[in-house]
Amino acid sequence: SGKGGYTPPPVIKKKEEPADILRSRAGGAYIPPAKLRLMQQQMEDKNSEQYQRLNWERIKKRIHGEVNKVNVGNLVGVVRSLLQENILRGKGLLCRSIMQAQAFSPGFSHVYAGHVAVINSKFPFIGDLLVRRLVVQFKRCFRRGDKGTTMIVTKFIAHLINQQVTHEILGLEIAILMLDKPTDDSVEVAIAFIKECGMKLQQVAPRALASVFDRLRSILNEATDLDKRTQYMIESVMAILKDKFQAYPAVVDDLDLIDEEDQVTHMMTLEEAIDPENGLNVFKLDADFETTEAEYEEVRRTVIGDADDSDEEEEEEEDEDDEDPGTYADQVVKKMEAGKTDIIDNSEQALVAFRREIYLTIQSSLDFQEAAHKILKMGIKPQLEPELCNMLV
User: Fold this and answer.
1) Looking at the 3D structure of the chain, how many domains does it have?
2) Per the record, where are the segments of Acidic residues compositional bias (predicted)?
């Protein structure tokens, strides 16, 4: 107020319009799942952006909640519950939630790997995406020298090898890389990794595992700058090898849920360029939303139907119907995936990668029968069969 007693009028602030709670980076304010469903039901246009954003938020919350309650006893039930949501649309969110949950609870890595194995048997591209993201994360942590995170990531990869979600070649490459220029930290990571998947490697690639242990012996005998603790760790893992990894089983009985012929094993190496497809974590408007949802519903019914059928019913269906329901589901899934056309890459780079894959497979096999079995399981495309014959000759 001035000398004349003048009082300025109060400033009236305009009421700000509430921001769209679904557009912020963190997803905005918390919305209970029931309220999300109610908001969706009140919208008539399912192709609208707002409806799809609400649907995206619901999928995100459902996936996060289900993954966080996974344990040995409810693993199959959680997978069935996840299938109620469109996990094809939310595959990036699913992989991210699984990786976060495993990072927070690395002691349950074998449980999360079993969870992934069940999903991967029905939706292989989800297993492939997860392995790609783990490999990218491993490379990043290894370059930074982040021992803690590297141990967590390699532990998860080890159990995915045990579950045959990814090929043992990736595990052998990781072990060799960690022991190439040995330090106390790199040797510790390598030993922790070998403990987790050593039994599996001994079963499928005994000669390759033997070469890894030969490297450990030479490090123990030649490396003078290693800490006494690291030397003791090497001696301890030698004793574990002698005991055939009995204290470190590859897969416990409660998590051995997928038959070998039903599992899809993804071939991944450290040398190849890998796209983690981080864009899948972000909402994208789908112009054909209702069509996509209807197609997923077909897949969901097929998958859950297969899970409910007994072995006898499945055998009867095979006799009565030439078309396998799983095959139909695969066709619908492929149709829904981006990039619907198969691209045959006959470039020199692709041939080099193929030759390396065959070479490593043969080298990691105990005898010709094991090598032949592994090569047959790789599902080699017809156009690469002449190249395979040339290599064998």
Assistant:
1) 2
2) 306-325
